From TrEMBL:
SUPFAM superfamilies: Periplasmic binding protein-like II. Belongs to the UPF0065 (bug) family. This is Tripartite tricarboxylate transporter substrate binding protein. Keywords: Signal.
Amino acid sequence: MRLDLFRRAATLAAVGLLVALPLAPASAQDRYPSKEIRILVGFPPGSAAEGTLRALVNAAGKYLPQPLVIINKPGAAQALAMTELAGAEPDGYTIGMTTDGFLALTVLQQKMRFNPEDLSPLLGYSQFKHVLFTRGDAPWRKYEDFLAQAKKEPGSMDYGGAGSGSAPDLLGKVLARDAGIQMTYVPFKGSNEYIPSVMGKHVKTAVVAVSGIAPQLKDGSLAAILVFGDERLPELPGVPTSEEKGIRNTDVFNSILMLVTPKKMPADRVKVLHDAFRKAAEDPDFRRAVEPTGLAAKYFSPQDVERRMQRAREIGVPLLRELNLLVN
């Protein structure tokens, strides 16, 4: 009888070992992340947006056990990078960086090779702050003088920006509508063209993210007329906001930089990344690194991002329709 009990125990032990053996590698495989994570970016190296992401990645290294690798794929207004992301395996090892403005409005202005609904916001971590600016010696460098000049000579006050249907274009149109003035939009390929045009007196004003003209504002060669949004900027305490002047809902066009994932990514892996990147976005080292860029470091939850995109569509789609820029 003892022998039978011994044999039965040995058999059970063997079966238990056979059952347990496959679990070991599966358990190791389930640890996430177990290898590097790629971040696809539609901005070129050296841009303020890309530099802010690098600062976030540096901070996130404290909270994730594997490397984060930035892959720059500029082109087609971020569409190249987002197309690749939408087709990537939703395993958590390929994510992306874009703006809420891209997913809310840009995707409506061109034919996309992916479905924007296949991407989900992970979180937002920084925000552009746009300003209306002019030459430092212009007689309309104060908002009241700008408004008086625009009303005195309707249509004479022009403004530059990057492309049609862009944030600068739409912000200027909201300003003109709510202030009751006429402004002529002059589209350029980028701020590297229209900032010199303002300084050279070819265009009276322009709209740009404040990070793009920080040195000129500091040396006085350019002056900010108006901050788009509802909060004054610490570096421009004397410049009024659009909200103060009765220009409503402009902050939705101050795009936020955000991380996105393929929609079918497992929820537990989404949580790992969200929690790590939230800590990074709130890390003092990240905030210090972002400060010189002129962008505002701020955490936005996935729900915050969704609400912003919905609001941007509510305000932006009628403007795009008016400009005949809607494709989708």
